């Protein structure tokens, strides 16, 4: 019983069907309170559908979902008073100014007009939108729109904040701003559930990640656990002499027991440090490989250890690449 | 890191989220109490007013359109139907007032539809407020527009020579009755606004319903000259009863039967379409 109260979100067998599409097909999630939980998946995976059910915007066709113990169907109002959603597409009124949008929502949340105005002004200031406060949102840039949309979601500090693809379509600087905002919000105790197609985004922000594809959770865990399920990482080596590369490849393949790739750079090679049957850590095994290279009189100028990217995780889990990789 | 000039000219891009100021706002989360149904509805009505303030062009349909209708039909039919435009205006004005306002109600559906398209309603639907408030507020905003259209038509009518026998009290009661009925009638369009996928189809369906309901009535002529089957339709057409009630009040002989008919049909429309609207709204 105490366990369930530590969970901000809990779903079991959650299903949503649109015609013949099983958009969400039996999803079980357990999101610990006070953390950022990443939901990672390609286009059409069912991220938006899942989040909308949790935010009481869509009725589940099967299974159960609870937010802080409140059922999203039977206790929708209790859920609504604790959650807030920043949808994939901006849900603010284009015709109104930034200030008016926030005051409107403040009033709807029960603030009296002066309090609503005060909170709106402080939020606009904190989001760097004071100068644009009295302009209609129509004229805002993509990054500003995202920020006002997030600001609109925290007029009343929510216990759970859903962010549906908050950085899709933003330039790197705006994306970093949103990341910083997310970190500040979660530091204040709000649980954040964030959907994304960007693997590095989930890696940077989330303490746990669910990978979903075609409506199903295909992997769940910490970013580290997900990586470990694919392989411990890789070692990247730069030799002094390109002529020694063939020898180096042989030595490393023997030492690490895996495939060694030759990079485009004629003095560089990369080896996968595959999943572990022995107890040796990835770094230990890399060190062994380096020692063997030295023993074979092959001069190494530089080396680095790389963690497997979540792109590799995705490929390994779904046997089809993510859209970014397919496009690359 | 950035000079004063760049931070002045590019305030939005040089922004760095500040943990202290944002954190302070989040921490100061006094928990307000849930607003009442009325207060939430009025707040949505305020939103409708703000939209009119920012996009005043949208008042075109409640000003220019009624003026055009009044002038057009007064001079088109006046001579032929009543011998003179002056006499006809006495008969026509209450009818054209009802027709214009009832026609304008269809924009309610269009407005609801665009709000949904834009995703604005998604945010409203996650708020812990009385559920119908967003729609009630939108319709309240529309009632303001109806009042505006009524004023425009009445002022124009008075200029053209319309002289209501019922005096100020009769005219005001008539307009109030019209507002009340239109408020109820608007829920037909909120339903279509939620049901249909595009703004265009909402317009299309509205026209299909409104043209027969307004033209096949007593707005322009006395139904006694119509063939029997048409009279039968006019007899059950709520718009015809509304016109009769409004006409009676303005002339100074209120007809209790027509007023009751109007209030009851309005009540039924509100109950049926209000319920259907909320069903659709909750299910979306
Ligand atoms: N209202 C709807 N009607 C019919 N099908 C829908 C509807 N909403 C979603 N779907 C379908 O459900 C599936 C999941 O959609 P969803 O929007 O949840 O994906 P997503 O993970 O959010 O994708 P994206 O990254 O593109 O936003 C898709 O196949 C989509 O076509
Ligand atoms: Mg989506």
How would you portray this structure in words?
The complex is a heterodimer of chains A (328) and B (284). Chain A is an alpha/beta fold. Chain A is built from 13 helices and 14 strands. Chain A folds into two domains: 7-227, P-loop containing nucleotide triphosphate hydrolases (Rossmann fold, 3-Layer(aba) Sandwich), CATH 3.40.50; 231-307, 2-Layer Sandwich (Alpha-Beta Plaits). In chain A, the strands form three sheets. In chain A, strands 6-7-8-3-9-10 form a six-stranded mixed sheet, with helices on both faces. In chain A, a hairpin with a 2-residue loop joins strand 1 (7-18) and strand 2. In chain A, helix 10 packs across helix 11. The model of chain A has no long low-confidence stretch (mean pLDDT 87). Chain B is mostly helical and 284 residues long. Chain B contains 13 helices and no strands. The longest helix of chain B has 29 residues, at 167-195. Chain B starts with a helix and ends with a helix. The model of chain B is unreliable at 1-12 (pLDDT under 50). The chains are: A alpha/beta (328), B mainly alpha (284). Adenosine-5'-triphosphate binds next to strand 2 and helix 2 of chain A.
Quick rundown:
The complex is a heterodimer of chains A (328) and B (284). With 328 residues, chain A is of the alpha/beta class.
Class by alpha and beta content of chain B: mainly alpha
Strand order of the largest sheet of chain A: 6-7-8-3-9-10
Largest interface: A-B, 58 and 46 residues
> What portion of residues of chain A is helical?
25-40%
Helix/strand layout:
The complex is a heterodimer of chains A (328) and B (284).
Chain A: H1 2-5, E1 7-18, E2 21-32, E3 36-40, H2 47-54, E4 62-67, E5 70-71, H3 76-80, E6 83-86, H4 98-108, H5 113-126, H6 142-153, E7 160-164, H7 172-187, E8 191-196, H8 199-205, E9 208-213, E10 216-221, H9 223-228, E11 233-239, H10 245-256, E12 260-262, E13 268-273, H11 282-295, E14 300-306, H12 310-318, H13 323-327
Parallel strand pairs in A: 3-8, 3-9, 6-7, 7-8
Antiparallel strand pairs in A: 1-2, 1-4, 4-5, 9-10, 11-13, 11-14, 12-13
Chain B: H1 4-9, H2 19-27, H3 37-54, H4 60-82, H5 85-104, H6 106-117, H7 120-125, H8 133-160, H9 167-195, H10 199-215, H11 228-236, H12 238-251, H13 256-283
Helix pairs in contact in B: 3-8, 4-5, 4-8, 5-8, 5-12, 6-8, 6-9, 6-10, 8-9, 9-12, 9-13, 12-13
